[in-house]
Amino acid sequence: MSQVAASDVASSARLGRLGEILAHSSYMVGRQTRNLFREPIWIAMMLVQPMFWLLLYSQLFRRLVELPGFETDSYIDFLAPAVVIMTAFFQGTWSGMGMITDLDRGVIERFLATPARRSALVFSQVLRSGLTSVIQGVIILAVSLVLGAENGGPVGWLVIMLAGGLVSAGFAGISQGVALITRREATMIAVANFIGLPLMFFSAMLIDFDLIPRWMQWAARFNPVQWAVDAAREPVLASPDWSLVGLSMLLLAAFVVATTGFATWAFRAYQRTL
Amino acid sequence: MDAITVGALEKRYGDVHALAGVSFAVRQGEVFALLGPNGAGKSTTVRILVTLTKPDSGAATVAGHDVVHEADAVRRSIGYVPQASGIDREATGRENLTLQGRVQGLRGPVLRERVDELLALFGLGEAADRTVRGYSGGMKRRLDVALGLVHRPQVFFLDEPTTGLDPEARAAMWDELGRLARGERLTILLTTHYLEEADRLADRLAIVSHGRVVVEGTPEGLKRELRGDSVAVEVTDGLGERAAAVVSALQDVHEAIPEGRMLRARVESGATAIPGILSALEGNGIAVVSVTTARPSLDDVYLHHTGRDFRSEDEAGVR
Ligand SMILES: Nc1ncnc2c1ncn2[C@@H]1O[C@H](COP(=O)(O)OP(=O)(O)OP(=O)(O)O)[C@@H](O)[C@H]1O
Ligand SMILES: [Mg+2]
After folding, report:
1. Index of the ligand 1 atom closest to the CA of residue B83
2. B218: distance to nearest CA of chain A, Å?
3. What's the structural domain count of chain B?
4. Contact residues of ligand 1, CB 6 A cut-off
5. Of the candidates B72, B88, B104, which has its C-beta nearest A107's C-beta?
6. Whose CA is closest to A189, among A100, A78, A66, A57?
7. CATH code of B216's domain
8. ipTM for the complex?
9. DSSP-based three-state secondary structure for A222
10. What is the mean pLDDT of each run of 10 residues along chain A (274 residues)?
């Protein structure tokens, strides 16, 4: 009897705790997005950059789809998911800069002296990155629609945005962790470039997977960017491989869990240095 | 009951022994000041008490809760004004206060009213909906204080609340802190570099130096402990040391400590000791530039207990 009662208390306490983590995360996400939207430069970057990629690549590689081996005949259709993923990937990779600013300005320390949930301070950054990428995804897909892409219909849209959100959140986990460990902008920039550029190149972002060299294909299998590209691109192809979409989504979800774990660990490590 | 108890706190950062056994207690409703030069360990002590930092050894309680083992209970009972602000500069004053209130568990109309009340109380009503980026130093600091008070804490920690403020803003802050101390049943612990600030605001104070509490008491009590008057003599450059030797040999001088071209002496009575001091210095060929006498100040208390001049030590710390 008493054991049951005790476990009841424990589980209700846990629910309360989870509720509190969610509530605090949403406050923090609200704060971060509000601040971002007050930066006109940031909004410009967020909108203009993906448009730029979309227009530039579609002009540059228009003839690419004529290559044998391309599974679609509209390059804009082929490109739009890749631009969503690329934008999401950058969004995640650079999301740690926000954490560094907060650390520098003492905002994190101020919250640490309140009952604010520690995990919410980390989760909110990861969540914010993912949500921003979903919004960016909607905008990019809308523009590509105007340019003549179909994006695989409503299901395609959902899958592309989800893949974008997950890859953004996953890299945000790494970025937050690195920010908490280095706590310096210059180091952060170096690490982001060092990790970011190779991952971009070792993926079939702008070209069909079967057209890249075999050893690169092998390397790309371990690249979360490639998982996201796989998940996002299949729906726009003539005959989508839904099992590849499912597998890629699972891998991405595991990636998000792992990197958020890393960020949480880095946050504890940071607290120990105070 | 004591609102804060601190027992033998120690903290090391690598080779730096930031706290070497700090102990003191603060009674409920009291204003207590930690006074000391740069690097003395004031912030480290406060940061342990507000649960930011864990001590290497020793124990402390705030509002009856252990700062390490009952950290969340402590966090609900305290307000904290960090030495280097902690405001979100991209947000407005109102947004900063609202988020702080939410995190402290306030909701709905109660939260809205409390935010309005604090904005008015700290003279931020007009600036409430502007981003903090455009606030003056004094306004930012007042917002810092308001943030710490959102949830009506029992114990309020302020780490150098007036450092960097111009004299006018400092005076305004002193008024506000004085009002807080009188009005609400609030225990206040503040740290400061300014002897004047401790003298003016604190019921009791502790002088911290090199990670230890050197002396503790009321400002008046500490001054009273120093018998007699203090005499400050300014001599020509380079002669401070020799002047101190000459003066300390005199009959009615308790203590004479040189600091650069100044010489600070404690005597039974300033009025009767000065003629003797002057003739002794003249007799030894030391020219006197000026001489003043006063009741002992906290400067003298600091000098007496640490053997060092407060201001010169502080500047040395900055460098
Ligand atoms: N996070 C840290 N890492 C390394 N050293 C630290 C850290 N925090 C404090 N110290 C060192 O501990 C000592 C005490 O610092 P503390 O900040 O407590 O002094 P303080 O009395 O508040 O000084 P100030 O008046 O300059 O604010 C200093 O020598 C400081 O350099
Ligand atoms: Mg300090």
Report:
1. 27
2. 29
3. 2
4. B 13, 16, 18, 36, 38-44, 83
5. B88
6. A100
7. 3.40.50.300
8. 0.85
9. coil
10. 40 68 95 89 83 81 68 76 92 93 95 95 96 93 86 89 97 96 91 83 75 81 91 86 93 97 97 93
